Structures are given as C-alpha cells and as structure tokens.
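Recap from last week: sequence in, structure out.
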Amino acid sequence: MICLDSWAVIAWVLGQEPSATQVQKTISQRPLISTVNIAEVFYIVKRKTDQQTAQQLIRDLRSQLTFVTADEDLAVRAGLIKSNNPLALADAFALATSATHNATLLTGDPEILRLKGKWKIRDIR
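Predicted structure tokens:
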C-alpha cells in the first residue's frame, strides 16, 4: 500500500521529475492521502494560481486517490509524532496516515526524510 504526502502530490502535479513519474506509477493503486495533506495541496495551488484551479485539482485528486479523513485516532497519532519530532503538522499527518495503514509514504520532503524512526518512507526525488 502507498501513501502520498503533499510534497509528492505537488511534484506530480507540476511534473517535477523523477518524482512525478514515481507517483504516476502508483495511481492505479489509488494511494492514500490524509485530508490534512489535501488541505496543504489546496492552499499551495491556490497561492500559485487561483481558488477555482485549486478546487478543480482537489476534485481531480479525489477521483484518483483515497482520501483518509483525519478522525480522532489519526489526530492523536499525528500529535504524538509531532510532539516527538521537529516537523510540520501536515507532515505528521502524512506519517500517521501511512503508519495506520501500514503503507509506504512517498515523499521528497527533507523534513520527513531526515527523521529516524520505524516508518516506511521512500525518497522519490
């Protein structure tokens, strides 16, 4: 099972290689992504373009990815990760989502890649 963080999705959308090709290869598996990471993708794209473009992207992503809602259990797990590691909250949700589903997290985010832990992470840069 594969999980994406917002870094991987943005690289895929922008066609940044080799990351985009690696993400594209997983799309048929409907990779997981936390709704917190979807929020991050939305605001990044909105800042670079406009709200309509960002909303259309989220609709498109919904048809290709499996959105994982941030419920209380996931929030607590992300909170534990964040409390023990110097990283952004959305990154903690990406790690928590992948760990909860025993999935490999695809990312190129240096903040995640430098962590030492028992997470399954694949550097797609």
